[in-house]
Amino acid sequence: MSASMSWRRLVWSVYSPALAGVFTRISDRLFRARDRRRGSSVLLLAPLLAEADPAPQCVSRPTGSAGAQGTDSLCTHFRWMAEHVPAFRVPGTRIHILTSPEQFYQAMKARIKTAKRRVVMASLYLGTGQLEKELVDCMEEALQRSQDCSHASDLKVSILLDYTRGSRGQINSRTMLLPLLQRFTSQMRVSLYHTPDLRGLLRMLVPQRFNETIGVQHIKVYLFDDSIIISGANLSDSYFTNRQDRYVLLENCSEVADFFSDLVEAVGDISLQLQPDDSVTMLEGMVHPYKGNRQDFSAVARKRIMEVVNTAQMRQQLLSRSEDSEDEGMGEDEDTWVFPLIQMKPLGIQVDEQVTQRLLTDAGPDSTVFLTSGYFNLTRAYVRLVLGPGARYRILTASPEVNGFFGAKGVAGAIPAAYIHIARQFYNQVYQLGQQKRVHLHEYHRPQWTFHAKGLWYYLQGQERPCLTLIGSPNFGYRSVHRDLEAQIAIVTENEELQSQLQEEQEMLYQRSTEVSSSTFERPDRHVKLWVKLVTPLIKNFF
């Protein structure tokens, strides 16, 4: 890179807490006192009464942004992200794109075995199969080695999972980890995040199989000393074998690793703590997520988490100013920027949503965006930006047979058909607006596999390779924006080798796809029953 990075005129972002939902306000008033147990089943419908998807804030396309498509460096195009989040500058040679579940699994096992200081893992849940047991065995070996090699056991293991999903069934994520917690109590922490929206009558009446639809811990971060894997994959056997996702490995990127370690610790602090006897407790001074006041919990949680973001942002700004004062800068090999983006709307944090909307708004007519989601359910705000004037889009989603709910029992079995209906509605919108030459929809096909990849690749005007990718847990849908805790990273790079890796990853996924046409929805296997169409609005909000 010919010019060193300059980050001047950066300002603090002001994050306004999201308005509490209708259900939250009603539920808190009804259940604040334990002796007040009167209520109505209508509360179960309250989450559906809230505005389905509020209109996005008006975002203009500023001069010098990616929409300008000038000859300025990538720094000029994307420096605005540093106004919202920390900007970590790293050598592109330390970032590697993994392409298969097997690579993902083996990379984790190898790094757990060699970890000396910390293993930090955040996921929706930990499965209970043989592959998951082998992963736990790796942690046990690493912890035992730490005890054997030092009088003071330096290795710490911290696991963050979702409470509802991690507690489902008699054999679950908790029972998988209890032996480690019992044996290495001083070195092991297991935190179980519980959404503040599942409380009161709703918590009592929603079946265990469906309680996670209200909101979950959805962040997927796997950290080993100073290396980290950001992904959308959970810790479960299918994600290690035949469920296609995306995975990026950042080797020896200590500042990025420190940030995500601090983030997971912060979310862990507001979560229930698993004890060796399988009970759960809250840290002293923390508000309980479903027994305490809803607004108080969100305020405490938001403050704790934003302390991590703001502290890291300030540190990176000061570091950048210090480097700007030096003639040599940071060195030409540090050609890549990593921006962590978090979305936690139940806690009033919507950084990822703001950055994603700005990115889609700025995407000019000569840019190309490849966007993928295993569950194609864009929010109305994102749909408006995609269908408005701007970049060319190629959107990849799961065909019905590779949808994770394909073949499921009961109501869940109708979910793939609901996504067919959603895709058809979007396809019809594209044609009604005359955007069919600019916006294309693709379906991923692969026998005996499921599709769970999400993110985007951004190609600037005249570029053969992408210069930016979003990769992590968000699906760009209602749940990701409004219900769950999410995290991803934006990688902006001028490193040609890393750009080539991103291009190969994108092409590999799209090579297994077919483009959707009007005839696609006329096939017999794409018929959607009337009752499925009627319940699709509910599915869009909860799945």
Count of DSSP strands: 21
- Model regions low in confidence, pLDDT < 50 over at least 5 residues: 1-52, 54-72
Number of helices: 17
- Distance separating the two termini: 43 Å
* Principal-axes shape call: globular
CATH topology type of the largest domain = Endonuclease, Chain A
The average pLDDT is: 86
CATH architecture of the largest domain: 2-Layer Sandwich
Q: Quick one: CATH superfamily of the largest domain?
A: Endonuclease Chain A
Strand content is 15-25%
What characterizes the major β-sheet?
Answer: 10 strands, mixed
Task: Supply the number of structural domains.
Answer: 2
How would you characterize the overall build of this protein?
The chain is α+β, with helices and mostly antiparallel strands and 543 residues long. It folds into 2 domains: 76-91 and 333-542, Endonuclease, Chain A (2-Layer Sandwich), CATH 3.30.870.10; 92-321, Endonuclease, Chain A (2-Layer Sandwich), CATH 3.30.870.10. Helix content is 36%, strand content 18%. The protein has helices at residues 22-31, 46-49, 74-78, 101-114, 130-149, 163-166, 173-183, 200-205, 237-241, 254-269, 294-324, 351-362, 380-387, 415-432, 478-482, 496-510, 530-542; strands at residues 88-90, 95-98, 118-122, 156-162, 188-193, 221-224, 227-231, 243-244, 247-250, 272-274, 280-281, 336-344, 349-350, 368-373, 392-398, 439-444, 450-451, 455-459, 468-472, 486-493, 513-515. The longest helix has 31 residues, at 294-324. It is globular and about 65 Å long. The two termini are 43 Å apart. 48% of the residues are buried. The model is unreliable at 1-52 and 54-72 (pLDDT under 50).
